[in-house]
Amino acid sequence: MELDRYDRQLLALLQQEGRISNQELAERIGLSPSPCLRRVRALEEAGLITGYHAELDAKKLGLTLLALIHISMDRHTPERFANFEARVSALPEVLECLLITGQDADYQLKVIVRDMDAYQALLLEQITRIEGVSGVHSSFVMRRVVDKSALPIP
């Protein structure tokens, strides 16, 4: 899909304000409401907009410990990786799982839990028990310096 300036503006605004009304969205980018809505629907149908969600305050939910975990696998087989990915995908504490290169690890997980006890339980009772996990290295986030999910619109 070829994006014009209106599409780029729509995508940028919707990333920042997902609950904005169509009327206000149209006014902010200089279109009338009907064409604006048609464009948003076209962006959704094209798969550029994949969903809308609410951002929650982790601390107010009691989730105060954010950790990055590097995971090494014993064998690099499609079956091992598929099993690992399925198991970590089912863990609600796992916010992100990345298959990585350039490290001693195969995966990087971003997890969030209540405290160190909850982290220990997650690590020892769940993650290290996944078949194929041979090494784990944890780092704990002291402060989020940049924390955004909005993509740059080319």
TrEMBL record:
<dbReference type="Pfam" id="PF01037">
    <property type="entry name" value="AsnC_trans_reg"/>
</dbReference>
<dbReference type="InterPro" id="IPR000485">
    <property type="entry name" value="AsnC-type_HTH_dom"/>
</dbReference>
<dbReference type="InterPro" id="IPR036390">
    <property type="entry name" value="WH_DNA-bd_sf"/>
</dbReference>
<keyword id="KW-0804">Transcription</keyword>
<dbReference type="GO" id="GO:0043565">
    <property type="term" value="F:sequence-specific DNA binding"/>
</dbReference>
<dbReference type="InterPro" id="IPR019888">
    <property type="entry name" value="Tscrpt_reg_AsnC-like"/>
</dbReference>
<dbReference type="InterPro" id="IPR011008">
    <property type="entry name" value="Dimeric_a/b-barrel"/>
</dbReference>
<dbReference type="InterPro" id="IPR036388">
    <property type="entry name" value="WH-like_DNA-bd_sf"/>
</dbReference>
<dbReference type="GO" id="GO:0006355">
    <property type="term" value="P:regulation of DNA-templated transcription"/>
</dbReference>
<dbReference type="InterPro" id="IPR019885">
    <property type="entry name" value="Tscrpt_reg_HTH_AsnC-type_CS"/>
</dbReference>
<feature type="domain" description="HTH asnC-type">
    <location>
        <begin position="3"/>
        <end position="64"/>
    </location>
</feature>
<dbReference type="InterPro" id="IPR011991">
    <property type="entry name" value="ArsR-like_HTH"/>
</dbReference>
<dbReference type="Pfam" id="PF13412">
    <property type="entry name" value="HTH_24"/>
</dbReference>
<keyword id="KW-0805">Transcription regulation</keyword>
<dbReference type="GO" id="GO:0005829">
    <property type="term" value="C:cytosol"/>
</dbReference>
<dbReference type="GO" id="GO:0043200">
    <property type="term" value="P:response to amino acid"/>
</dbReference>
<dbReference type="InterPro" id="IPR019887">
    <property type="entry name" value="Tscrpt_reg_AsnC/Lrp_C"/>
</dbReference>
<keyword id="KW-0238">DNA-binding</keyword>
<protein>
    <submittedName>
        <fullName>Transcriptional regulator, AsnC family</fullName>
    </submittedName>
</protein>
